């Protein structure tokens, strides 16, 4: 799959042309002042993911046992419920 860089200004001025390239299978990296800010990728065919790679680069988490109590998901949810909310 071909990858190209397109400045944000070109995307603004020639959106249809850039999107035609994406529709033809090209991956476009959008840049602003030469710095990549995002990608436009072709949509996957029906039943295929849009990205040909895993979207979770970390894989499964291996959390260390810190000796705390073993909690169920429900107990964790109950503990965290309301955290971060603003009281009036």
Task: Please tell me about this protein's structure.
- The chain has 88 residues and is α+β, with helices and mostly antiparallel strands.
- Helix content is 26%, strand content 19%.
- It contains 3 helices and 3 strands.
- The protein has a 3-stranded mixed beta sheet with strand order 1-2-3.
In short:
This protein is of the alpha+beta class and about 90 residues long. The chain has helices at about 10-15, 15-25, 75-80; strands spanning about 5, 25-30, 35-40. The chain has a three-stranded mixed beta sheet with strand order 1-2-3.
Estimate the helix proportion, in percent.
25-40%
Largest sheet descriptor:
3 strands, mixed
Kindly name the structural category.
alpha+beta
Strand percentage lies at: 15-25%
Rg is 22 Å
Number of strands: 3
**Average pLDDT metric:** 81
Topology as a string of helices (H) and strands (E): EHHEEH
Largest sheet strand order: 1-2-3
Could you give the distance between the termini? 53 Å
Shape: elongated
Topology at a glance:
Blueprint: E1 3-7, H1 8-13, H2 15-23, E2 27-32, E3 35-40, H3 73-80
Parallel strand pairs: 1-2
Antiparallel strand pairs: 2-3
């Amino acid at each position: 799959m071909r990858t190209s860089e397109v400045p944000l200004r070109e995307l603004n001025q020639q959106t249809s042309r850039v999107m035609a390239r994406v529709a033809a299978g090209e991956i476009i990296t959008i840049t602003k002042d030469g710095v990549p800010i995002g990608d436009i990728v072709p949509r996957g065919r029906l039943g295929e993911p849009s990205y040909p790679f895993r979207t979770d680069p970390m894989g499964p988490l291996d959390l260390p046992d810190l000796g705390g109590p073993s909690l169920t998901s429900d107990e964790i949810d109950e503990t965290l419920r309301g955290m971060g909310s603003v009281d009036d």
